[in-house]
Amino acid sequence: MDSRQITQEQQPWLLENGDPKRLTKEARHGHGRSRNVHNLSTSSLRKRSGYTLLSKDNRACLQTVLVNIQEVILGTKLSILFSAIPAAILAHYFGLGRLAIRGFVALFKAKDCLFEAWIFILSLLGLTPLAERVSFLTEQIAFFTGPTVGGLLNATCGNITELIIAIFALSNNQIAVVKYSLLGSILSNLLLVLGTSLLCGGIANLGVEQKYDRRQADVNSLMLLLALLCHSLPLLFTYSAASPELTVEPTLYLSRTASIVMLGAYVVYLVFQLWTHRQFFEAEDVWQFLEAEDEGLGENNEAEEEAVIGFWSAFAWLAGMTVFIAWLSEYVVDTIEDASDSWGLSVSFLSIILLPIVGNAAEHAGAIIFAFKNKLDISLGVALGSATQIAMFVVPLCVIVAWIMGVKMDLNFNILETGSLALAIIVTAFTLQDGTSHYLKGLILLLCYFVIGACFFVQRTPINHNDVPNFTLKLVTDSVLST
Question: Which of 154, 164, 166, 309 could form a disulfide with 178 if both were Cys (CB 3.0 to 4.6 A apart)?
Answer without folding.
Answer: 166
